[in-house]
Amino acid sequence: MIPSLPRPIWLRTATAAYLIAFLVFLFLPLAVVAVFAFNDAPYPAPPWHGFTLDWFLGNTAKGRTGLFADSDLLGSIWTSCIVAVCVTAMSALVGLTNAFLIERGRFPGKQILSIMMLAPLVIPGVILGISILAFASRIAEFADDAFGLELDFLRPGLPLVVLGQFSYIATIATLTISARLRRFDRTLEEAALNLGAAKAAVFRTITLPYLRPAVLGSAAISFLMSFADFNTTLMLVGSDTPLTVMMYGRMREGATPVLNAVSLFLMIASAVLALTLLRRGHSRAKPAE
Amino acid sequence: MLNAAADKRWHGRFALALLLAPALLWLGSLIILPHADLAVLSFRERVGPRQYSASLAQYKTFFTEPLYWHVFLRTAVMSVIATFMTLLLAFPIAWIIAKLARGRAGSLLFIICLIPFWVSETVRTLGWMILLRESGVLPALLVKLGLTDVPVELLYRDATIMVGLVYTSLLFMVVPLVSSLESLDNSLIEAAYDLGAGGLSILRSIVIPHAAPGITAGCIVVFMLTLGNYLTPTLLGGKNSQWFTEQIYTQFITRFNWEQGAAFGFLLLGLSTALVMVGLRLSGQRFGDVMRRT
After folding, report:
1. Is the CB of B23 inside 8 Å of chain A's CB atoms?
2. Which CATH code fits A70-255?
3. pTM for this structure?
């Protein structure tokens, strides 16, 4: 019940106990990942053998490869970064044009189009992956048969991974940016136009700065989602493996604590990104109230 | 004058076309055409090298081969259970965040609950593997507590898959629940209490009807994500996972039987769409509104 109503003591205790149990459940998996990155044993498992930085720095005497020397793992982080940057840029751009299309455009079929834009979110990622894979190879085959063209970018590989992730992340960018554009006070634009500003100038100096937080926010979310995507990527991946797929492969084989080390980095990076984003959102939301 | 008006209209059309182009290119070339192609693939059969004929053979295989539809049914049932359990687990937390915690404590708690989900699913699953495998933390703890004599393997069980799925889905339930509970006016609950209503009847006749849109949104998203999940069932369930997405992967990537894989894909898509429709119908909501909530 709510605080203004009498709550029996057992209910208060149960609530507190539940909250604590829930938080333990939430953070326990992350905590063990972090802790076992520093365990001086070849497998991320108890018992505790003492603190070590081997899984970061490496230890040639014990034949351990640390994260900073694991070129496969570092390479896959780099691959993930490249993919995420491409996906983020494309999603932000298309999200921006879509927002104007949905919020400002007037054309027949707009209702259907805006519903269609939501569809990628309800299609399972695996299916997005296989459909794009099949369609791309059909085009590649057709180009080969008809014109003798070898279109390598349509074969499984990073360009397809980018397209696959973009296909649903664009929806998220569209939703975020159009939600903010909907709340925009159009009289600001009209005032500027009345005062003689050109349309392009109005867009550059008024509308775009207003949308900036939404664009940046959706870019951060796109980057994280791209970095974390597994389902779609798995279907489209070629010889260059992004980090999630690489980690998955090693986890199936029984991994060394190097994976814990790289996970710890991911946790710190995403926590920093999340907190910056939330802080920005907070400080911007406050003055408006 | 007339010319200027026509000029302006032309400008408007040009701008519209410019805005339409990326949207149509995106939806057309990455969503609509690939799915149409997938449909074509699923309705054909290989009769010779590079020769195909239209047929329902792929779908027939699905229904005649018990393994396939067993896995399909199992995936569906487990996803429904996981969705329900996520709702049960998330509701009290959403209530605490939205109603019980005061002022900043509420938003702080909300942020704390969100943080684990900014980390990728791979990392979270790694954590569960370290906790649950035979040589892992929990089995060792059980031995130490004297509950079991030898470490037990906690991975590769259905219950483990369930824990992993619920864990992964929590965020997508908590967020819509919190936003729908926050908009519930406390005075309604107070009024009901003053009129003598008990906790359960307040929950049933005030809270749940008000939170219905949030509950529906959360359930739909969680169900879809669970159904389409691949990582959690395969890693936590191992060979026993028998998840339908795994069948799709096997057909497509391992066996290179794209026709069969495409048919499986469509069946999964059909199931997911059907249950989303049922959920919307039951709660009387529109798709667009639900998606905007999440």
Report:
1. yes
2. 1.10.3720.10
3. 0.88
